[in-house]
Design goal:
five-stranded antiparallel β-sheet, 13 strands, four-stranded antiparallel β-sheet, about 350 residues, alpha+beta
């Protein structure tokens, strides 16, 4: 109830702000600490998961193989022109975050929920920036956002992350405990500003960081001291790490590494064989047509020439396909051996040296 009342008040603020041309929370400010030598000022750049180097969390693309399922977009998908206008979906149930792809199926598929009426490109267009100022025992947060979901309901979280292999994350609303003042509503063009004064951020080590996350609530409800059910109604859109440099990806165990390397090798070999088979099949089709046409000729000399030409053309096409296949096989195996070396499998594990097809 308190959250609903709070959101009603914020909706009135958003409406007033839109009328006078201000962002939804620009009517609310806090005192900023002076920039003297006792203050630590950190510039904050909020970005989507893909830009930060992680799979997209909490919003999903429809699976290309099953219309009732959805999948997470992985790093690089933001460059796929075919995905820019794709609609995003919620999941059908809560899906835990998996930034580091440690789960059995980190990208899905998952059961499809409702359409969010947001395109892939619009979701990725959102951004934010600001400062975090440590002043004695307090931290001042001042953030501005652009291209959020218009009139979207959001909450801001000050999380502590410990990177793998000892992965851990503590969730805490920015502002007061209980989530009393960690929410805002974007204006009609997705702009907003959020300010808060919180207990000073705890120190971080090389394997930990503070993470500010901005969560969109598609049910237009905030959820107090918890962000809500990930993927179902709560969708983390922007993140920023303090310090900003993320920890490197955790080392992949040799067995898992070898699984990935062998999968890549076998897929490449399948593709090479399919290409070879297609080329030989096409050459056979051409030869068949030529031989049939040859036996339609009444002049034996012309017929024999056409038959010989057809056989010669087939042998050349087949041999060229075989040479290209052998070259592809050599390149695939060369890459496989290099990738295998990177995995550093224990000497006690048998590693196949060559693949014969």
């Amino acid at each position: 109830m308190n959250n609903s009342i709070g959101l009603l008040k914020q909706s009135l603020v958003a409406a007033l702000a839109a009328v006078i041309g201000l962002s939804s929370l620009s009517l609310t400010t806090i005192a900023r600490a002076d920039n003297n030598n006792d203050n630590e000022v950190v510039a904050v750049n909020l970005q989507n998961h893909l830009s930060a180097g992680y799979p997209l969390q909490d919003v999903f693309l429809q699976s290309s193989t099953n219309a009732e399922q959805v999948v997470r977009a992985d790093v690089g998908a933001q460059n796929d022109a075919n995905l820019q206008g794709a609609m995003l979906f919620a999941s059908n149930s809560a899906i835990a975050h998996d930034y580091f792809k440690l789960g059995a199926a980190p990208l899905g598929p998952f059961a499809k929920g409702r359409q969010l009426q947001i395109t892939f490109s619009d979701w990725l267009a959102a951004n934010g920036a600001g400062t975090v100022v440590n002043d004695n025992d307090r931290t001042n947060i001042d953030l501005s956002f652009n291209k959020l979901v218009p009139f979207g309901v959001y909450s801001v979280w000050c999380n502590r992350v410990t990177y793998p292999p000892a992965l851990a994350m503590s969730l805490q609303p920015c502002g007061s405990l209980g989530g009393a003042n960690n929410t805002f509503i974007a204006n009609d063009v997705g702009e907003a500003r959020y300010t808060a004064n919180v207990q000073r951020f705890a120190g971080t080590s090389g394997n930990s960081a503070m993470m500010i996350s901005v969560v969109y609530h598609s049910d237009r409800e905030t959820h107090g001291e918890r962000p809500g059910e990930w993927g179902l109604y709560s969708h983390e859109q922007l993140v920023a790490f303090i310090p900003q440099k993320p920890a490197p990806n955790p080392p992949v165990p040799a067995s898992s590494c070898m699984q990935q390397v062998i999968t890549s090798r076998e897929n490449a070999l399948v593709g090479a064989v399919q290409t070879y088979t297609t080329r030989v099949t096409n050459a056979l089709d051409v030869r068949r047509s030529a031989l049939v046409a040859a036996w339609g000729l009444t002049n034996s000399r012309d017929r024999n020439k056409m038959i010989n030409d057809a056989q010669k053309a087939f042998r050349k096409s087949r041999n060229d396909a075989r040479k290209d296949y052998n070259r592809a096989w050599h390149d695939i195996m060369k890459k496989y051996r290099a990738d295998r070396a990177e995995c550093k499998p224990p000497a006690s594990i048998r590693v196949d040296e060559e693949v014969v097809i």
